[in-house]
Write a structure and sequence with these properties.
Shape: globular
Strand order of the largest sheet: 1-3-2
Structural class: alpha+beta
Oligomer: single chain
Largest sheet: 3 strands, antiparallel
Radius of gyration: 13 Å
Number of helices: 5
Length: 105
């Protein structure tokens, strides 16, 4: 079917090594995505709504890394892919991580 894309794959944060989480957050673009998403309502942000200096392909890569690290969840709503920070799941797997990530710059 033309225009169809595969549903995003997600990892449970409990199955992710802490090194993978830290590597995902070490990139400034991914850190900024997570910070912006943290301050947003669940499922309110489409992928193209983030204020980061990368193109569509780069943004797709960064979201894939964040999903693989268990930090974000995505779902398709029509033509849009929307996002949520996996706050509770990440906090359960890595207590205190969200607080560290979201400290003022």
């Amino acid at each position: 079917m033309a225009g169809h894309r595969a549903a995003p794959q997600h990892r449970d944060p409990r199955d992710v090594p802490v090194e993978t989480v830290f590597a995902a957050l070490a990139d400034p673009v991914r850190l900024e995505i997570v910070r912006q998403l943290w301050g947003s309502e669940d499922w309110a942000r489409a992928c193209g709504s983030f204020d980061v200096a990368v193109g569509k392909a780069g943004l797709s890569h960064h979201f894939a890394v964040l999903r693989d690290a268990g930090l974000v969840e995505q779902r398709d709503e029509g033509a849009r892919r929307v996002n949520r920070a996996r706050r509770a799941e990440v906090e359960a797997a890595f207590p205190g991580l969200w607080q560290l990530v979201n400290q003022p710059h």
